[in-house]
Design brief:
By secondary structure, the chain is mainly alpha-helical. 64% of the residues lie in helices and 0% in strands. Its main location: membrane.
Length: 187
């Protein structure tokens, strides 16, 4: 691993820790504790899978592409994912929290990235995990990090969409019909 990789991994990881610490939600009027343990589950899966993928990348010969190009592509994808995540958080503004919560005066965001995707922040995060898998340049490591993380994010999206449907009813189900979850016009 080169120093650029180390810096980007560190910035990515620290940005997620800061988001978790700063954007938890906490207004007394918020409806809390709706995430059904999904946030803790996501963190456990992420930490386990990243560590296993890093070991697998070092110990196995399943190279995606020889040379440094795949590492650079992967690092670029991590940065692109971070950018998508930060832009989506900024667009959602005070309604964004890392826990599944209905904020006071909550409404459904339907413009910007949220006019296309219901979960652009998750899409950005998943893009970064895909980038990590690519950056270690190993097919098996890519699968080990991306598939379980995608699975726990899908679980999280199910929890969140169920809560939002319960809160907003037909308005949210109509919104779901006109947007994709994380991949524009596909999923």
């Amino acid at each position: 691993m080169n120093s650029l990789s180390s810096v980007i991994y560190l910035v990515w990881f620290l940005s997620e820790i800061l988001l978790h610490r700063i954007l938890r939600g906490g207004d007394q009027a918020d409806k809390k504790k709706q995430d059904k343990g999904s946030l803790a589950f996501i963190w456990i899966v992420i930490i386990v899978c990243i560590n296993i993928a890093a070991i697998v990348a070092i110990k196995t010969p399943f190279i995606i592409s020889p040379g440094p190009l795949m590492n650079r592509i992967g690092l670029s994808v991590i940065l692109l994912g971070m950018l998508l995540r930060f832009v989506s958080i900024a667009q959602l503004g005070r309604l964004f929290t890392v826990v599944v919560t209905i904020r006071k005066d909550h409404h459904i965001k339907k413009n910007g990235l949220y006019g296309i995707l219901r979960h652009p922040s998750y899409a950005g995060s998943l893009l970064s995990f895909l980038g990590f898998g690519l950056s270690v340049n190993n097919w098996l490591a890519l699968a080990i990090v991306f598939i379980p993380v995608l699975s726990v994010f899908i679980y999280r999206m199910n929890v969140e969409e169920k809560m939002l449907t319960a809160q907003f009813g037909e308005e949210y189900t109509d919104y779901m019909k006109h947007t994709s979850r994380i991949l524009p016009w596909i999923y």
